[in-house]
């Protein structure tokens, strides 16, 4: 990281804290699609934001200047940071009264960064990236094709992190234009006060838009492949785009956890519980991977009302890979991503009951996918533990909460829950009472690529199988 850059300052501020920043690598094509999706939501948002963008060089801003004209009409203030070039200040958008240009010195580390910061009372988003140096690219050197350029950074909707990043940017702007920095600081304060009384924009619609733009970008890249190098490059770009589609859902799940003050670590704890149950059942690695991702996304199961091309129209023959369940609209959106069809199936049937009285399919017993049974029990147990923890004085013993939650789950054994899974949970709780600790850690939102470590067609095929008990009592698929 370049010393003095905004990326480096944000990293330094969080490196020793409870929530260190985790960065990923993004291709330019991915960032273009991502930024366009986040920017275009401004046109739908109920409130006017501050928009701060860093374009590296003036020529990159000029390519986007016309669309920024429309964005400026919906914004309080738009600030463009870039190393000035011919035409940088003459474009009509640059002349708008609420658009300010900050001409960066070419030696300024921010001139090597690509940023988009959106802060309003109802909508927050940030893309914060720094281009890899020639040394970072290794022996191959700087890429010849513009689309192969890579950037190191992160993106998120998290309000506090967005505000912190905006404040770092304003501090940097103050070195060039103190009066503008002062005006922006006052606007941030006003937005913070307004946000208390206003309902936030529908994040599910924003995420749907992000995924749609990323998938459209992926389709635009598809075409004739002239040589092996281009084929390899295409594969890498595809993987980066799909990774960010997955990240969009993970980030929405993260915000749902953060908004739940009584249970802010729900996803991480359910992941740990589900994986521990999976290990006790000796599940194979591919099944553990999709159980892990389903656990991260389990609170998104009721994604009702998400509307986009992802949930309508033809599916290029993909529907045969899994049952269609219109009662769970969010799972339908996930299913349109081939890499997530099996995960969508897990979430779709999370509310089934062992006795067949659940939803949406009325499945009973071993008809219910194994991962759905594991996830549902782990999530219910975790919520019960969190509720007891919040309502009872802390006696220094988490095992007591676990025992209470287990007893409540055992009361529904054979009706709501798979009896043998409840017995496995009882073994886990016994371990917790004897000093076992669950490896709970905050999910890495930039690690979507791990899902692609196994073949998509194998996962889709596996998603169609039904998990059963073997004669020896061990789970199989």
Please, could you describe this protein's structure?
The chain is an alpha+beta fold and 477 residues long. The protein has 2 domains: 6-199, Endonuclease, Chain A; 260-476, Hypothetical protein af1432, CATH 1.10.3210. It is 47% helix and 10% strand. The chain has 15 helices and 9 strands. The protein has helices at 6-14, 28-40, 58-73, 159-173, 178-195, 203-221, 228-259, 266-280, 285-297, 329-335, 341-348, 370-391, 398-410, 419-433, 456-463, and strands spanning 24-27, 50-57, 77-83, 99-103, 113-119, 124-131, 150-156, 468-469, 475-476. The strands form 2 sheets. Strands 1-7-6-5-2-3-4 form a 7-stranded mixed β-sheet, sandwiched between helices. The protein has a two-stranded antiparallel sheet with strand order 8-9. The chain is elongated.
Summary tags:
2 domains; alpha+beta; 47% helix; 10% strand; Hypothetical protein af1432; two-stranded antiparallel ribbon; disordered C terminus; Endonuclease, Chain A; 477 residues
SSE-based structural type: alpha+beta
Summed up, the helix count is 15
**Cα-to-Cα separation, first versus last residue:** 46 Å
- Sum up the overall morphology in one term: elongated
Question: Strand content of the residues, in percent?
Answer: 5-15%
Q: Biggest sheet: strands, sense, closure?
A: 7 strands, mixed
Mean pLDDT, all residues:
79
Order of strands across the main sheet: 1-7-6-5-2-3-4
């Amino acid at each position: 990281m370049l010393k003095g850059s905004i990326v480096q300052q944000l990293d330094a501020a969080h490196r020793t804290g409870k929530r260190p920043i985790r960065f990923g690598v993004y291709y330019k094509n991915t960032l273009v699609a991502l930024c366009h999706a986040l920017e275009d939501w401004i046109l739908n948002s109920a409130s006017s934001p501050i928009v701060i963008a860093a374009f590296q060089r003036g020529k990159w801003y000029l390519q986007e200047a016309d669309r920024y004209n429309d964005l400026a009409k919906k914004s309080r203030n738009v600030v463009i940071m870039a190393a000035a070039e011919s035409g940088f200040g003459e474009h009509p958008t640059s002349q708008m009264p609420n658009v300010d240009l900050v001409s960066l010195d070419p030696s300024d580390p921010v001139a090597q960064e690509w940023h988009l910061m959106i802060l309003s009372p109802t909508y927050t988003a940030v893309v914060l990236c720094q281009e890899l140096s020639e040394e970072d690219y290794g022996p191959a050197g700087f890429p010849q094709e513009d689309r192969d350029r890579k950037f190191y950074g992160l993106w998120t909707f998290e309000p506090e992190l967005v505000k912190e990043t905006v404040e770092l940017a304003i501090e940097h702007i103050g070195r060039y234009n103190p009066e503008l920095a002062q005006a922006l600081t006052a606007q941030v304060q006003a937005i913070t006060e307004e946000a208390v009384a206003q309902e936030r924009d529908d994040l599910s619609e924003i995420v749907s838009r992000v995924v749609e733009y990323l998938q459209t970008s992926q389709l635009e890249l598809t075409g004739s492949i002239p040589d092996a190098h281009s084929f390899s490059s295409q594969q890498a770009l595809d993987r980066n785009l799909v990774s960010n589609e997955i990240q969009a859902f993970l980030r929405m799940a993260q915000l749902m956890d953060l908004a739940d003050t009584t249970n802010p670590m729900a996803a991480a704890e359910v992941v740990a519980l589900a994986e521990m149950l999976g290990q006790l059942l000796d599940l194979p690695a591919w099944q553990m991977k999709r159980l892990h991702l389903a656990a991260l996304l389990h609170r998104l199961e009721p994604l009702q009302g998400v509307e986009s091309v992802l949930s309508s129209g033809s599916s290029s023959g993909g529907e045969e890979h899994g049952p269609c369940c219109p009662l769970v609209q969010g799972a339908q959106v996930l299913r349109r991503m081939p890499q997530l069809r099996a995960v969508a199936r897990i979430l779709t049937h999370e509310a089934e009951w062992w006795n067949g009285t659940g939803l949406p399919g009325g499945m009973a017993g071993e008809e219910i996918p194994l991962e759905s049974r594991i996830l549902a029990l782990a999530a219910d147990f975790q919520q019960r533990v969190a509720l007891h923890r919040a309502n009872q004085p802390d006696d220094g013993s988490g095992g007591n909460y676990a025992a209470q939650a287990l007893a409540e789950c055992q009361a529904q054994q054979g009706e709501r829950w798979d009896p043998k899974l409840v017995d496995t949970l009882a073994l886990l709780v016994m371990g917790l009472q004897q000093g076992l600790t669950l490896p709970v850690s905050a999910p890495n939102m930039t690690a979507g690529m791990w899902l692609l470590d196994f073949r998509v067609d194998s996962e889709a095929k596996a998603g169609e199988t039904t998990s059963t008990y073997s004669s020896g009592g061990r789970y199989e698929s």
